[in-house]
Amino acid sequence: xxxxxxxxxxxxxxxPAMAENLPPQRIFESPxxxxxxxxxxxxxxxxxxxxYIKTRADDLRVTDLWVADVAGGEPRMLLDxxxxxxxERDLSEAEKARRERLGVATRGVIDYAWDSLGRVILAPVxxxxxxxxxxSGTARQVTTTPGDEIDAKISPRGGYVSYVRDDNLYITxxxxxxxRALTEGGTELKSWATADFIAxxxxxxxxxxxxxxxxxxxxxxxxxxxxVDIVDRPEVNATGANVxxxxxxxxxxxxxxxxxxxxxxxxxxxxxxxxDNPDIYLARVNWSKDGKTLYVQRQTRDQRRLDLLAVDxxxxxxxxxxxxxxxxxxDLTDDFRxxxxxxxxxxxxxxxxxxxxxxxxxxxxIRQVTRGDWPVAEIEGxxxxxxxxxFSASRDTPIESRVYAVSYAKPGEPRALTAAGGxxxxxxxxxxxxxxxxxxxxxxxxxTALYRSDGTRVRWIEENxxxxxxxxxxxxxxxxxxxxxxxxxADGQDLYWSMRTPPGFDPARTYPVIVSVYGGPxxxxxxxAWASPEDQILLDAGYILFELDNRGSANRSAxxxxxxxxxxxQLEVDDQIAGARYLQSLxxxxxxxxxxxxxxxxxxxxxxxxxxxxxxxxxxxxxxPVTDWKLxxxxxxxxxxxxxxxxxxxxxxxxxxxxxxxxxAGSLLIIHGMAxxxxxxxxxxxxxFALQAAGTPFETMVYPGLRxxxxxxxxxxxxxxxxxLDFFDRKLK
Length: 733
Hints:
Elements: H1 5-12, H2 24-27, E1 39-43, E2 49-56, E3 59-69, E4 76-79, H3 81-84, H4 93-102, E5 107-108, E6 113-114, E7 120-125, E8 128-133, E9 138-141, E10 150-154, E11 160-165, E12 168-173, E13 180-181, E14 190-192, H5 197-201, E15 209-211, E16 217-224, E17 230-237, E18 240-247, E19 257-264, E20 270-271, E21 280-287, E22 294-300, E23 305-311, E24 318-325, E25 337-338, E26 344-348, E27 355-359, E28 365-368, E29 376-383, E30 388-393, E31 402-407, E32 415-416, E33 423-428, E34 435-441, E35 444-451, E36 457-462, E37 483-488, E38 494-500, E39 511-516, H6 535-540, E40 544-548, H7 558-562, H8 571-584, E41 589-599, H9 601-610, E42 619-623, H10 634-641, H11 648-654, E43 668-673, H12 682-694, E44 699-703, H13 714-732
Parallel strand pairs: 3-5, 39-40, 39-41, 41-42, 42-43, 43-44
Antiparallel strand pairs: 1-2, 2-3, 3-4, 6-7, 7-8, 8-9, 10-11, 11-12, 12-13, 14-16, 15-16, 16-19, 17-18, 19-20, 21-22, 22-23, 23-24, 25-26, 26-27, 27-28, 29-30, 30-31, 31-32, 33-34, 34-35, 35-36, 37-38, 38-40
C-alpha cells in the first residue's frame, strides 16, 4: 500500500483562502457548468465538415445539431431542437424504453445520420423524422403520424429513409413519395426489425435491421417474446400508478426467440439459417463491403462461445468461419471490421489481453496485429488506403487512454496519435484516417478537435477551454487534481484508486470520507478524466472522496476480469474493504467516519459493504440496488453467474436480504426510481420488507415516474444530490 509523492502533493496543496465554492444550484442550471461539449460527433462523407449534438445554453434538457467547417470559421447550428419540437411530446412506451437503454435524458435532436454521399442528414425528433438538405440548407418533416417512428436510418446510398412503427419496418424515398411497409403483422409480442430488451440493455445492440450497402436489401430480425415471463412492474407516477406487464427474462428462464431474414426491396423474404438451437443470442449483424456476404455473430446462451457466420444473402445458408471460446465468458464488441476483398479485422482475448487480428475471408488467421501485456479498448476506424487500423488503448496505465495507429499489413510498434495524460474518445473518417478526438483529464473538461491522420490538430470543434468566460471559471480555484495510487489485492494484483480532498485541506486535521463504488465486472471508475461537478457538493462540504477499482474491473487482463466468475459480490467486496482499511491508515482520515455510496451495481455493493462482518463503513446511500441476482436479467447475470440451477451456492452467497440483520441501525438510505424497468423496484421492496420486519431503522427516498438512468431532470438530480449530502452530514459529522 503506497501513496506516491506526487499524489500526496496534489492532496495537501490547499486552495486559495478566497476561493469561491460552487453553489449546488448552479450545477443543475443552464448553461452546462462543464462548458459546451460536442456529442455524437461525425465527419461528413466528403470530409469538409464535422457535425455534432450540443446541449442548449438556455436549457439543459434540449439538444440541437451543429456543424463546423474543416476550413475554419465559427460552428453554427443546423437544426434547432426547440423549434422542431417546441413542446415535449408523450412518447410511446417503445421509444421511452429505447431512450432509457441509450441513456438519453434530453429532447430535441437526440440522434442523426448522414447519407454516404453527404447530401442529406436524417434527424429523428420527438417521434417524427426530419431531413436536412445540405445543398439548400433547409429541413423538411418526413413523417407526421400519431405513432412514433423508432430507430430511423438513412440507407447507405441515400435512397431511402427507414424506420420502425408499431413493430413493422417502413421505408420512404428520400426524394419524397409513398411510404412502403416492408413487413406486416408485427405486434408487441411478435415484432419485426426491433431490438429486444436484452439486446439493448445488455448487448448494446440497439437496432433490429441492417441495410445492404447497395440499398437493395435489408437484413431484419423477427423477435418472438411470447415465451418470456411477464413481470408485473408497478410504475408509480406523480399523478397516479399503473401496472406494466413487462416481458422480463430472468436467470434460468426463457429468453426471446430471434430469427433473422433478408428482405430484398424487390423479391421474397429469405430466412437466415442460424443453426438448430433456437436458444441463442443474435449478437451482431454486418454486411461485407460488396454486399455479397452477410456476417452474423451468434452467441450461445451460456456466453462461452461466439460464432461468426458468413451467410449467402441470396439463400440464407451460412457457415461458421470463426469461433471464440472461453471457460468463463466471451465479451461482445463492435470490433468486427470487414475490408475490401473479403478479409476482416477482429479482436480476441485469447492471448490473455484483447488484441487485434487479421483474417482471410474464409476465417483463416493471417496474422496477429497487436500484442503485449495491455488490452486494446476498441477499434476506432480503418484507413484501407494505407492498410492502417486506428484503435484506442491504455498501454501505459489503465487509468489513461490514447489513440494509436498500426499497419495490419506489416504490423510493428503502434504509433501514438494523441498525447498522454487523460482519456480520449474518437470518431474516425471512413477514408483517409482523419479523426475527431475528444480529450479530458481531471483539470480539463471535454475538448473536441479535428485531427489529421498523423494526430496533428486541424481545428477546434469545441475548445471548451477553462479560462475567463467559461461557466466553471469562477470556481476553478477550488478545482484540485486527485491523487492516484495503488494497493495490493489479496492475490497480489494492483488495485488503482483515486482520492480528492476538500478545499482548504489541512493534513494535520482529520476528515470524513465518502467512497464512491460501482464494483461490477467489466466496469471502471478510476480514470484521469473530468469529474462530475456534482462531486464538488460533497468536497465543498468537507468530505474526502475516494474511489477504488476492485478485481473484475475493465481495462485489465482477462484473468483480472474473470476472477469474479460465478461469485459476484465476494472478491470485489474484499477489495473495497481493503481500500477502506487503507484509508483508515492515513493520518488525515477519521477512521470512524467512512461512508459509501453507489448506483445500480454500486447500490448492491453499498448494501454488501454495510453488512460485511466488522465493516469499516459507518453509513451508506444505496441507489437502485440489486438485492437478488435471480431477479435480474438473463444476459448480464448468466454471463457472470450461470443459472440458479447450475450455481446455487454462488447465488446464495451473492444475495443481500439474508445479510440485512447485520445492518447497523440508521446507517442506510435507499434511493430508487418508481418506474425502474432495469433494476425493478421489487429489488428494493424486498430489502424494505426485511428491514421493517427486523425493526431496523433506515431511510428511503423514492422518485415517482423515474427509471434507472433516463428521464432524470436537473431538478431530480439536484434533489438526489442534496438528499445524499443531508444524509451523510447527519451520519458522518
